Amino acid sequence: MASKQGVKPLPQSANPPQQYPSQRSPHQLRTPSNRKTIYDRNLNRTRTSELSRASFAYLFSEMVSYAQKRVTGIQDLERRLNEQGYPLGLRLLPLLLYREPPRASLRPIRILPLLQFIHGPLWKHLFGRPADAIEHSSSANNEYMISDNEPLVNQYISVPKEMSQLNCAAFVAGVIEGVCDACGMKAAVSAHNSGTEMWPGKTVFLIRFEQGVIEREAILERGG
To answer: Residue 200 and residue 193: Cα distance in Å, rounded?
Structure first.
């Protein structure tokens, strides 16, 4: 019977192989030399910062071009723009409430304070001015409207004649919808062309709250 022979270790080289630094993973966050990331910044640092209109026009036109790929029609394009704005609304609500004075930093729980928040602080943060009007539908108790006579998002978009019904402010409608959902008031928001002789680019944002929100509003109103 053959005897077992032990495996001899290989002799170590006097010059070990050179080790090269591993490549950075494309998903790995880069850390600045001061070891601080964007999450270490004060949330009020960029409170008064503004983006140039030229930069905004370029970025938004690229967003519209991206959303326009593989769409089946105008409604599909507006839906994709709405979906792009929705996450922004979810994140803007806590940020803007954090920046409000202590007495005004409470999350809205009623419809009217929510609409006033959208009409005022949200619009001022996005466009530098409040919206133009808030209205309540006379035919449906769950429908409210916020009007903007000159939506900034439409000023730099050239819409072809065959797509005249397109309203790129559907992106802003998605932002409004995200804010409503973040407040616990589920709603569907859409943007509609409502031009007049004085304001040809006027857009109305139609906010349809779910019936449960209206029922809760009635309960809160009875309770004072």
So the answer is: 9
